[in-house]
Structures are given as structure tokens and as C-alpha cells.
Specification:
The protein is α/β, with parallel strands linked by helices. Strands 11, 12, 13, 14, 15, 16 and 21 form a 7-stranded mixed β-sheet that branches. A 5-stranded parallel β-sheet has the order 2-1-29-30-10. The chain has a 4-stranded antiparallel β-sheet with strand order 6-5-9-22. β26 (508-510) and β27 (517-520) form a beta hairpin. α21 (630-639) crosses α22. The longest helix is centred in the N-terminal third of the chain and has 19 residues, at 54-72. The structure holds one RNA strand.
RNA sequence: GCCGAAGUGGCGGAAUUGGUAGACGCACACGACUCAAAAUCGUGCGGGAGCAAUCCCAUGAGAGUUCGAGUCUCUCCUUCGGCACCA
């Protein structure tokens, strides 16, 4: 019986402390008075009915260990928690189980919060938020009207992604690999009038900001690709025998002389105006067909199609007359939806010209090196080059049947012949600008954020349509526009309007300007808007006057550490940056980017495979609490490898951290009144130093390894002094919080271990007195000699050449050179 | 195709950033305890040669720089992530 009491019982210990931490508000800082703020944030969860999963657990823990470490280092740590509960995800699930989302969430949030509370995280439950509460979404709507007032929220009609299953439009960011991010069905193209946020106005700032931020490279690169900056020029083309003209965007103005035709997208405004009588029927038929194609069809079938418009344009640089074609390989949404085609030096134009027998004109010469490179790539055609000798330099161009996009030297280009592509780009654009025929321009792939959703479960868009006054924002004093609590009729209708459109007492209102009868907007905002600003609300979750307190924001922002899944790289993370920049421009804050440091946590694989319900290899955290306890589970996840990489979880492997926790627990018995051995003290101080360094670099895995080493050393000791053990327990508390807290109490302390000070290491103890001096001959290790740590070159040399093992390598040879690395090695270069 | 990250024992991964490759853990083997098993503790554990001391090979492949390369440079291969008819 007594035996049992002494046994490590993680479940009981963890339960006890998790409860006490919440009750005693151990981790609730005073935001106003805090002197040394540290804001640690994990992506707030969507409270799914399945409950906490291992991915949540991983991301939360990555933040949590840093929070605990910083708290021990004397910071006022704020690690808030809340619920991202609006949105299609919740609503679809509610539809599936036939319950209203509101009722369902009451239950799932209660469950989820119990789970997080029992996980022993240092969350501040005082500041909990929920995006579906009117106190929260009042401010989501407030953001909308602020952006509306500044022209950053606007309505426009355009072709949008319509998800037939979710029955709503989606933002471009929510189409992943051509399908709906939520339900994986193929979206249709629909022309609709919708609300947009002008994120494109921030394209350059979003891109530039990336340079300064401490974010995972993988995330930054995803954002860069999504923003898709390209520099080039706009060029005007006049239409022959017409007053019309159109502009094109190109990144290769140096190839302007090689333009042999132009292409307009089927949606281009000009097509109707310029089409010739003979071609009209064909053109109209083509436009109709192209319009019916979904993005997915386009993606799958990249075969070029198109039709001649019957009209011609004038190349501004050489007055050549070139045909204008209509083709859907030119996209309406990018640039002007019109291009100059240079088939010799653009692969898409090349393909099109081949198919429709359009002329090809080479204007770029390549040097020998580039020619050889292309020859290697394209061996079967390697004999079609034409040689041109230019100032004794060999230059080449292709005779036929090939297209190359490399930069080179210009020819067939009038006064620009001989210039490099780079120079020619500058000169040609200068000439165009001087003659008002074009200008330098930068384009981005990023498009404005469509935020209307034809759904029920979101904040209603705070807009009123008045016959007299037009589109009017709901005044701030009337916020929030409450989402009516519907028992029935909240399902998406699919008719292009949100279900609120049918709720008469919601829709009917008065115009805030003229007081006359008016209608509300029936759509709600995108769920990603709720989550684009939640971290601002945490610091003022109770504030009724303001979205957040500016003084507190100044103190607590930018956020010190943010961790979450990289699947949000271009969704959530881009939107948060945009909203933060907008806040900056509203004068609310003085910074542009909300997260100083972001780390993407990788995925957890089970035995090397992706987890999925169908495979039955899903890791349920609660199951492992039963088996090994949360302290061991969390440590194991972190121990598996460096942050940001995928990691393979195995049932056997987890025993490693379980054993570790148990060993630490068992050390308690050895605490005696005793003098500490020097070797133990040295290891302790080295461990403190090492853990500090690893935490600084967020190398949790090696920090744990160092603590394990210390544990192994202590396990071998008969007696451990209390002072050494206490220090060791404090530094272990970062990874084994409940266990450490329990030990701390048993050592006779009343206050929480997390209110203790991190022990300072003594650098004289942390560094070695004796080292193993490595002796190399010509860079190969030949001997290791124990020497004083501060041994100098002279003595090291003596030690080396008098070593018996070294003798045979230097006998009869000259020592040409000696390389000495202090505290490490001496290398004798002999011949 | 373009951009980014990565490739080290049977496995997850270390390596103070150019200085002892394989820390720590898992698995495995042997030993101690036990009537026995589990648990625990101890020892070993990249490959090859040798009784041994020791020597050779080895960080995806190949070259290079260097006294010295897992780390830097170039070329190539593979895997993963992002973008993709974006002019």
C-alpha cells in the first residue's frame, strides 16, 4: 500500500495542478501593471465536436513551454485562449447533425475548454473570447465600417468562386488546388456583386514586411508566391482604323519588336467594339464557350484555344500591324486582361502561334554559354541555330521550331540592336514614357479579399441599402447588428443570397441617414475576418468602449511568439497582416506587422504516415494521458525533433519521455542533507546554461535531451542535495510542469514553482576545467590528450609531440604548420 | 516550369555554425536481480579488417576551396511544401 503512494501517478498529479492553476490564476497577468510583458499566442481553435486533437496539442505546447520558460525568467507572460466559433466549418457540422450552430457550440466549447484546462497549459482564462458573442462581433463589424469609410471595403461585380456544396462565394485564398478549402468540391464561376476588402492596396507593404520578420522561411515563401510581384511595363496599342486603344502588361518590354500579334481575354471590354463583321459570330460563340468553362476545366485542359477578332493593332515601337486574337489563355483578372504576344520568346505564345500558324520573329540573340545550356536541354533540335558574328563574339538565334525565354542581346530591334535585355528594358520603357505610349509598372497576383458569404453563421455585414441614400454603413452606435437566433430557415439557400434575406424583421430597417425605409445586407462576413484580429481583442476582452485599449496595445504588441499550422500561411496569416496594417493606417497602433516571430509547427505523423480516421491511426491525446500522462506526452512531441518539421509519433518511442518523468519523480527519495559533489554541480550549471541557449533558439528537443542527461547523472547518485535538486526541478518545470509543481510542493513549498526565479548559472562551474585536447595530423584525429581548458599553443604543442601515439606520424618529417584552436584541438601539418 | 525547405546509424534525431560525426531517446543484444516473467539497473550498439593495440571507409552523388567540410562553392539526383496559361 505504502509502495503505491510513492509511485509516480501522472494522471492524479496533472489533474490536481491543472485545476489549481486555473483556480488560483497562476497564469493570469495584470495587463496594466505588467512591467516585462511577453505575449505568447497559439492559433485559437475552432471548437470541433471531436475535441482537442494532437495537432492542437502540438501547437499549443510549442507556445506553452516558451511561456512557462519566460515566466520563470521573470516575464509577465500572457497566453490567452479563445474560440474561433463562427464560420462554415461549425455551420456545416451543425447542418449534418441537425442542430443549430449556437446550441451545438455551447456543448462543444464546454468540452473543448475542459480538455484544454486539463492539459496543464499556462492559459489566462480571465480573458477568454468567443467570436460568436455579440460583444466580440460588434467589433468585427466595426472593422468593416472603418474600412468602408476609407474605401477599403467596397462592392463590385465580378466572376467569383461559388462553392455549390457550401452554397456561398469564397475568396481566392480559400480555393486550394482548385477545390473548396472546406469541403473539397469544385467551385463554379459565377458573376456576382459582392463585398471586397482592398488587400491589394497593401500588396507592396505585405511583401516588404516579410523581409524584416522572424518567420519560418517556408511561410514567407508561400506568401511571396501568393502576392506574386512582377515588374514590367504597361504598353498602349492602337487599334487600326479605329479610335480605340488598349493597354497590355509585359515583363519583357525588351521583346517588343518580336510581338507578332496581340491577345485579349474573352471578358475584355474591347472585344465587342473591335470585332469585324465577318468574325463576329465566331467570336461570340467562342466567348460563350470560354465563359462556361470552370477554372478546373481550364486547369485540366491547357490546350490553347482562341479566335481571330478580325481587327489589327499597331505595335507602337515599329508601327507594325499585328492581328488581335481573343483567347482564354489570357486571364481577365491579371494586368489588363490583354497581352502582346512574342511567340519566339514566350512559351505560351509559342504554343498558340504554332497552333494557329501565326508568324514568329526572333529578337533575342544568345551567347555561346546559354546556347550550350539550351542544347543540353533540347538535344534533338540542337542543330537549328543560326550563327551571327558580332564584334568577334559568337551570338546565336534559333531558325525554327523552338522558343527560348532567356535574356540576351537584342537584334531585329531597330535602334536597340546590340543592347542587353536588361538595358533594352530600361531604354524601351523610357522611350515609351517619353512618347506617352506606356510606362513602368508593377503587377501582383494578389487579388482583393472577397468577404461576403451567403451563409447564416457569421457576423451580418453592417450595411443598409436605402433607395434614396444608396449604400450606407450602420453607424457605430447601432452596432452590433445582431445575428437573429433562428431555429429554422438558417440553412444556406443556394440562390445567391444569405438565409437572412428571408428573415423579414431582420431585413427591414430604417436608413440611418434619412430615416426612410431601407433593407439590410443579407450576407455575413467571412470567418477569416473573425480570426484576422482576435489577438487584439484579447488584451481588452471586457472593454465596451473600444475595440482595444491603445495603451495596452503599445505595451503588449507586437506579439512575441505565434505558433500554428502552416496551412494558414496565405489565409489567416495574410489577413492578419492586412488588418494590422489597416489598424496602423487608422491610427490605432504604430506597427505594421502583428507577430514578431512566427513558427509553423509541422505535422504529426503516426509511424511515418499521415493520420486519418479511415486509416484508424488517429492519435487521441486523452488516450495517451491514460497511458503516460500529459507531461510525458507533451515532452515527447517536442522531443521528437526540431520545431517546424513533420514528426513521426510512435507508441514505443513515447516510453522514453515517460521513463524520464518517472526517473525525475524517483529522484525525490534521494534528496538528503548532503554536500553536493563538484561533478554534479558542474553538470547542473552546464545544464542551466545549455537549456537557456536552446530555449533562446527554440530547440526544445535538445533542451529536453540536456535535462535527460542531468537526470541520468542524478539517478546514479546516492544522495542529492536539496539546493541542487530544487534548481534542477525549476528548469525541468518548463517541460514537466505538473510533475515539477508536485515535487516542489513535496519539498515543502507553498507558492507555485512558476513564481520562482530561474536559477542563474555560474559560468566558472558551467565551463570545463579539463578538456580532451584533440591532436590531429594533417586534419585527421590521431590522439586525444587530457589538458587544462586554458592550455596555450606552446604547451599543447609540447603535449602533442611528446605523445606516444603521435610519435610515429612525425618521426622523420617536418612540421610545416601548426593550427591551434583554443580549448579544442591542435593540428600538426607534416610532410 | 518557377520559388522555398530538406536529405546524417535499424528508427526519431544531435553536432557550440569550418574543428573529435552519431548527443539524447527508441529498437536491438548481453549481463545483474528473479523459481520465472515484467519492471528496474548495468554494458554494448554506423560499416569493414584484426586476438588486440589500431587502421580503413562513412553525413543523397560527383567535383572544388581548406591544415581540416555534415557544415562553404559549383553541378546533378531524390523527397516535401507553395505558385502555376499571372504575360
Amino acid at each position: 500500500m505504502k509502495q503505491d503512494k510513492k509511485k509516480y501517478n501522472p494522471q492524479a498529479i496533472e489533474k490536481k495542478w491543472a485545476k489549481r492553476w486555473v483556480e488560483e490564476k497562476t497564469f493570469s497577468p495584470d495587463l496594466e501593471k505588467a512591467k516585462n510583458p511577453y505575449y505568447a499566442l497559439f492559433m485559437f481553435p475552432y471548437p470541433s465536436a471531436e475535441g482537442l486533437h494532437i495537432g492542437n496539442f502540438y501547437a499549443f505546447t510549442c507556445v506553452d513551454v516558451m511561456a512557462k520558460y519566460k515566466k520563470l525568467r521573470g516575464f509577465d507572460v500572457f497566453e490567452p485562449v479563445g474560440w474561433d466559433a463562427f464560420g462554415i466549418h461549425s455551420e456545416n457540422y451543425a447542418l449534418k447533425i441537425g442542430e443549430t450552430p449556437g446550441k451545438m457550440l455551447e456543448r462543444t466549447i464546454a468540452n473543448f475548454s475542459e480538455q484544454i484546462k486539463s492539459a496543464g497549459l499556462s492559459c489566462d482564462w480571465e480573458k477568454e473570447i468567443n467570436t460568436t458573442s455579440p460583444e466580440y462581433y460588434k467589433w468585427t463589424q466595426w472593422i468593416f465600417i472603418q474600412l468602408f469609410a476609407r474605401g477599403l471595403a467596397y462592392q463590385k461585380e465580378s466572376y467569383l468562386n461559388w462553392c455549390p456544396s457550401c452554397k456561398t462565394v469564397l475568396a481566392d485564398e480559400q480555393i486550394e488546388g482548385g477545390t473548396c478549402e472546406r469541403c473539397k468540391s469544385a467551385p463554379e464561376k459565377r458573376k456576382m456583386k459582392q463585398w471586397f476588402f482592398k488587400i491589394t492596396a497593401y500588396a507592396e507593404r505585405l511583401l516588404e514586411g516579410l523581409e524584416k520578420m522572424d518567420w519560418s522561411e517556408i511561410t514567407k515563401s508561400a506568401q511571396r508566391n501568393w502576392i506574386g510581384k512582377s515588374e514590367g511595363a504597361n504598353i498602349k496599342f492602337k487599334v487600326v482604323d479605329s479610335v480605340e486603344e488598349f493597354e497590355i502588361f509585359t515583363t519583357r518590354p525588351d521583346t517588343l519588336f518580336g510581338c507578332t500579334y496581340c491577345v485579349l481575354s474573352p471578358e475584355h471590354d474591347l472585344t465587342q467594339k473591335i470585332v469585324s463583321k465577318e468574325q463576329r459570330l465566331k467570336v461570340e460563340e467562342y466567348i460563350k464557350k470560354a465563359g462556361a468553362k470552370s477554372d478546373l476545366e481550364r486547369k485540366e485542359n491547357k490546350e490553347k484555344t482562341g479566335v481571330f477578332s478580325g481587327a489589327y493593332a499597331i505595335n507602337p515601337v515599329n508601327q507594325e500591324k499585328v492581328p488581335i486574337w481573343i483567347a482564354d489563355y489570357v486571364l481577365a483578372g491579371y494586368g489588363f486582361g490583354a497581352i502582346m504576344a512574342v511567340p519566339a520568346h514566350d512559351e505560351r505564345d509559342w504554343e498558340f502561334a504554332q497552333k494557329f500558324n501565326l508568324p514568329i520573329k526572333y529578337v533575342i540573340l544568345l551567347d555561346d554559354k546559354k546556347k550550350r545550356m539550351l542544347d543540353d536541354r533540347n538535344k534533338e533540335n540542337a542543330d537549328s541555330w543560326i550563327l551571327q558574328l558580332d564584334k568577334n563574339e559568337k551570338k546565336w538565334w534559333w531558325k525554327e521550331n523552338y522558343c527560348y525565354t532567356e535574356d540576351g542581346a537584342l537584334f531585329n530591334s531597330g535602334g536597340y540592336n546590340g543592347l542587353s535585355s536588361q538595358e533594352a528594358r530600361k531604354k524601351i520603357v523610357q522611350w515609351l514614357e517619353k512618347n506617352n505610349l506606356g510606362k513602368k509598372e508593377t503587377n501582383y497576383k494578389l487579388r482583393d479579399w472577397c468577404i461576403s458569404r451567403q451563409r447564416y453563421w457569421g457576423p451580418p455585414i453592417p450595411i443598409i441599402y436605402c433607395e434614396k441614400c444608396g449604400t450606407v454603413a450602420v453607424p457605430e452606435k447601432d452596432l452590433p447588428v445582431k445575428l437573429p437566433e433562428l431555429e429554422i430557415g438558417w440553412e444556406p439557400s443556394g440562390d445567391g443570397r444569405g438565409p437572412l434575406a428571408k428573415v423579414e424583421n431582420f431585413m427591414a430597417t430604417n436608413c440611418p441617414k434619412c430615416g426612410g425605409k431601407a433593407q439590410r445586407e443579407a450576407d455575413v462576413t467571412d470567418n477569416f475576418l473573425d480570426s484576422a484580429w482576435y489577438f487584439f481583442r484579447y488584451i481588452s476582452s471586457m472593454n465596451k468602449e473600444k475595440i482595444f485599449d491603445e495603451k495596452l496595445a503599445k505595451k503588449w504588441f507586437p506579439i512575441d511568439l505565434y505558433v500554428g499550422g502552416n496551412e494558414h500561411a496565405v489565409l489567416h496569416l495574410m489577413y492578419t497582416r492586412f488588418i494590422t496594417m489597416a489598424f496602423h493606417d487608422l491610427g490605432l497602433i504604430d506597427f505594421d506587422d502583428p507577430f514578431k516571430k512566427f513558427r509553423a509547427n509541422g505535422m504529426i505523423l503516426k509511424d511515418g504516415k499521415k493520420m486519418s480516421k479511415s486509416k484508424g491511426n488517429v492519435i487521441n491525446p486523452e488516450e495517451y494521458r491514460e497511458k503516460v500522462g500529459y507531461d510525458a506526452l507533451k515532452s515527447y512531441i517536442l522531443f521528437l525533433g526540431p520545431l517546424g518539421e513533420d514528426r513521426s509519433f510512435s507508441d514505443r518511442g513515447i516510453l522514453g519521455t515517460k521513463n524520464w518523468a518517472e526517473k525525475v519523480y524517483n529522484l525525490l527519495e534521494k534528496v538528503k542533507d548532503t554536500e553536493e559533489k563538484k561533478a554534479v554541480l558542474q553538470k547542473l550549471h552546464k545544464t542551466i546554461q545549455g537549456v537557456e541557449m536552446d530555449m533562446k533558439n527554440q530547440k526544445y528537443n535538445t533542451a529536453i535531451a540536456k535535462l535527460m542527461e542531468m537526470t541520468n547523472l542524478l539517478t546514479k547518485e546516492e544522495k542529492i542535495s536539496k539546493s541542487v535538486f530544487e534548481k534542477f526541478v525549476i528548469i525541468s518545470a518548463v517541460f514537466l510542469p505538473a510533475l515539477a509543481e508536485e515535487i516542489w510542493e513535496r519539498l515543502g513549498h507553498n507558492e507555485s514553482i512558476f513564481d520562482q526565479k530561474w536559477p542563474e548559472y555560474d559560468s566558472s562551474l558551467a565551463s570545463e576545467e579539463k578538456i580532451e585536447l584533440v591532436v590531429q595530423i594533417n586534419g585527421k584525429v590521431r590522439d586525444k590528450i587530457i589538458a587544462d581548458a586554458d592550455v596555450n599553443e606552446e604547451i599543447a604543442k609540447k603535449l602533442a609531440i611528446t605523445s606516444a601515439k603521435i610519435e610515429k606520424y612525425i618521426i622523420g618529417k617536418d612540421i610545416k604548420k601548426i593550427i591551434f584552436v583554443k580549448g579544442k584541438l591542435i593540428n600538426l601539418v607534416v610532410k
